[in-house]
Every structure is written in structure tokens, then in C-alpha cells.
Specification:
Blueprint (H helix, E strand, L loop, with lengths): L7 H8 L3 H7 L4 E4 L2 E4 L2 E7 L3 E4 L10 E2 L1 H8 L4 H11 L39 H10 L4 H9 L3 E3 L6 E6 L5 E7 L10 E3 L9 E3 L6 E5 L2 H11 L5 E4 L6 H9 L5 E4 L5 H16 L3 E4 L9 H9 L22 E2 L10
Parallel strand pairs: 11-12, 11-13, 13-14
Antiparallel strand pairs: 1-2, 2-3, 3-4, 4-5, 6-7, 7-8, 8-9, 10-12, 14-15
Helix pairs in contact: 1-4, 3-4, 7-10
Length: 345
Amino acid sequence: MEQGRFTMEELQTAKDTDLCDVAEKLGYTVKRIGHFHTLKEMDSLRIYNRRSWFRWSREHDSSGRGGSQIDFLKVFAGMGTREAVFWLLDFAGYSRDAPDVRRPELRHQVQKPHDAGKKEFVLPMPAGDNSHLYDYLKHERGISREVIDFFLNAGLIYEAAGFHNIVFKGNDRNGITRSAGMRGIYDRNGKAFKCDVAGGDKNYGFNVFREGSSEVVVFEAAIDAMSYMDISRDYESSLVALGMLWDAPLATFLSEHPQIQCITFCLDNDSPGRKASDSLMEKYYGLGFDVGEKLPPKQYKDYNEWLQAVRKSAPLNCDVKADRKTIPMDCEIKTGKTQSAGRCR
């Protein structure tokens, strides 16, 4: 048998591989919803019968919107067809007759930063200007032009061509973009298009590092980080957005910036956010950090919901224009395991 060809049995073995297991091997979190599965990190994707997939997104052409397990590895791991089949056979424990065939290594795996190669991660082309971005963030999300300009000038956000999605970059300590997420500007019934740019390293999240800062403030979403800056006028602390409730982006940020001593969690005011905050405060306190959390008032789910209420002149306990040192105590840090969280201020 020629090494460059596969038998019908081998191809069938590759096509019988459980696609949910393949996705988990790449580091994604698989969730079952009714008769299909999806990914926590990319809820526009559907896995049917654990064998095929389809991505409900206009952002991608037909070659990247669905198919078999082989297509999944081609799109999300940057493999060629032959390499993908070899990988699936190896994953399934299938041994070929030719023992000298070199099995391709998995080059895309969420937990390994060095696995995301340049050919696998390409940022969307920017639009001619950022007019749609300004319109959405300012009028729909209540974020001031001052804060929007800060993130644009820092090169952390921009408007993509085509559907005008907002791109949020996840950079490393050298300013190299390692991951990116996209968010649509058209919300329908409270839902919006969201996805990660394929091939990005999920160990890196949207972040701002402040030279001389010993504190990092942590959020679930980039828009919440921007909203926090608007509300608190905090231009001193470093910021990290996890993009989820997985703390790998925070762990990476801390490893790249060892001067950070204090972590303030500003996760959502819902049950998953509260549970994650308690767990992460205990974890990082055990690692020697000063920890605490700073929540929006109880009636708001997150910082952006709070900011939007401020823009609409809703009654609040805190003044959005107040200097961060004058914000009332009921809106300040609630310490976790340690009483020293405020020392990082």
C-alpha cells in the first residue's frame, strides 16, 4: 500500500471519529443543547450526530462553514487533508501497515500558546474607518468616546471590513496579537453574533498592561472592561477580560507580568459569575496574591448594564463621574480571603 493513499477502511475510521472528542482534544468546551452539541467558546457552531458540523455565521465562506471531522481540523487546526486523516487515525488508535509513517502533531491546542502558528491565525481585514464601531459602542453600549479612543489608539480594538464586526485583540507582553474575538454590532432580541478568530491562542485574552501597576482587574468580557474604565475612571490598573469563565488568560497575564500582586475580580453579577469569582479568589489567594472583588450594584448583571443605566440617568448608588477614590464604599472592593486587597491601590 502506498503511503500517500488511504484505504476505504482508513477513511471510514477517520469519518467515524467522535467530533465532540476531537473538539475537546483541541481544548474547546463541548456543550449539549437539545439534539446537537455546540462549543462554549463558539456558540454559533453546531455539531450534529457527533460526526459533522456547521457554523451559523455569515463571516465565513462555504469552505469554512461546516463539514466532516477532516474539515474541522482543516479549519480549526490549520491542517491539510492528508495531515488531518493521519491525525484522526492516530487519535482513533488505528495503526497503519507502514510503521515509518510520521504522525502529524496537533499544532492547534488551546492550552499551548506556541501551537498557534501564523498560517492558522489571520486577523480580519479592517474597515475603511471605525464609524460603525463608534456608533455601536457609544450609542448602544453607552461607552464614552474618550474610552473608545483610548482602546483604538492602543490598537486593541478595530472595526472589521464586511459586516463591520468589532475585533477585540488579545496581545502578549510584546504587543503581538495571539488571539482575537469578534462581536457583531447588530443585536437582535438581545442576541448578537460572537465568535473567536480561528487559530487564536485562547491562553491570551483582551488585556491592558499598565507600567508600574501592581493590580489587575479581571472581567468576563472586553466591553465590561471598557465600561469599568468609564465608570471608575481607572487609568492606572491593568485589565484582563477572560472572554469566558476560564482563567487561562489571567494565568498567562500573571506569568508575563510578575510584578502583579493584587487581583480584583469584576465578574458578572449572576450565579455562574459569583461561583467563578469565589473559586478564583480562593485559587489565587492560595497562590500568594491579594484578592478581592468589586461588583456593580446588585440590580445590574455586569458593568456595561450599569453603565447603560448611568447614561439613561437611572438612580444609582455611585456617581459615574466620581473619582475612584470618592466612590462610596458599597461599590468598592469586597475582600475575599485576605483583608489586604486594597493595598494595591
